[in-house]
Amino acid sequence: MKSEYKSLVDNNTWVLVTAPEGRRVLRGKWVYKLKRGPQGEIIRYKARWVVRGFEQEEGIDYKETFASVVKPMSYKALFAIAAALDLEIGQMDVKTAFLHGDIDEEVYIEQPHEMDDGNGRVCRLNKALYGLRQSLRIWYNTLTNFLETIGFTALVADADMFSRGHIYIAVYVDGLR
């Protein structure tokens, strides 16, 4: 929990403020997970502070939630071409991905349990958090904008496949909803 909290603070995820009159303050919860090794041994304990996004109200806490996903035929074609040409395929996971996307709505959440400063303030989010209805969309937009700034262009047949020369990237966004 301390490591997750430090990551949230280091990424400027929120600003502590007095709750505005008449605004909803969303609740959060700690979600715990065990990372296991090949023999089932516990490698690491993980904790994530998650927003209870089901409490959000459309038009108030969020406007848009749609996040595009690469079409199955696109990545199957990519795998087939790579296999036929004996090319390498890589995969990556972005740790705390949602914390990289700036939120564009005014959203308030309670301070993480066990980490509350005791002053009755709430967190006004600067960054997306897991559980927010708009988090997948924010991360998708952040990632695709970055890819475009480094010279990748979306394919006409599938806007979630990007290319730059002979390098192809399929964007797949997954997360807690």
Strand content: 15-25%
Count of helical stretches: 3
Per DSSP E runs of 2 or more residues, the count of β-strands stands at 9
| CA-based shape | globular
Listing every helix as H and every strand as E from the N terminus to the C terminus, the arrangement reads: HEEEEHEEHEEE
Integer-rounded radius of gyration: 19 Å
Average pLDDT value? 86
Strand order of the largest sheet: 1-6-5-2
What is the percent of helical residues? 10-25%
List low-confidence stretches: none
Termini, distance in Å?
Answer: 20 Å
SSE-based structural type: alpha+beta
Major sheet size, sense and barrel closure:
4 strands, mixed
Fold blueprint:
Elements: H1 2-10, E1 14-17, E2 25-26, E3 28-36, E4 42-51, H2 72-84, E5 108-109, E6 122-125, H3 135-149, E7 153-154, E8 161-164, E9 167-170
Parallel strand pairs: 2-5
Antiparallel strand pairs: 1-6, 3-4, 5-6, 7-8, 8-9
How would you concisely characterize the structure shown here?
The protein has 177 residues and is α+β, with helices and mostly antiparallel strands. The chain has helices at 2-10, 72-84, 135-149; strands at 14-17, 25-26, 28-36, 42-51, 108-109, 122-125, 153-154, 161-164, 167-170. The protein is built from three helices and nine strands, in the order H-E-E-E-E-H-E-E-H-E-E-E.
